[in-house]
Amino acid sequence: MSPQRLFLLALLLYIAWRLLRSLIRDTITQKAKDQLRKESEQADKTTVQDILVEDPVCRTLIPKHQAVRLRQDGKTYYFCSDSCCDQFTGEPGGKE
Prior knowledge:
The protein is an alpha+beta fold and 96 residues long. The protein has helices at 3-46, 82-90, and strands at 52-54, 61-63, 68-72, 75-79. The chain folds into two domains: 1-47; 52-90, no CATH class. It has two helices and four strands; from the N terminus they run H-E-E-E-E-H. The strands form two sheets. The chain has a two-stranded antiparallel ribbon. The protein is rod-shaped.
């Protein structure tokens, strides 16, 4: 075999190896992206939206995570502010 043919064969093998390596890398990268997308979609589906609760004093609707909480007689009450909570506890029966 002549040196030119050996060089050409080596060049072709090198190009084929690079293409194959690139395809494998792209396939692995695409699978990883698909997995991340699936995990993101599942996380979006399982994310619970915040619930609105009503203040028993002023009847204002507020997000549960922002409300002032008061646990009394085994029941949890949610208030829009400390002043509504104080007003509720100042009245023995309180409004529900």
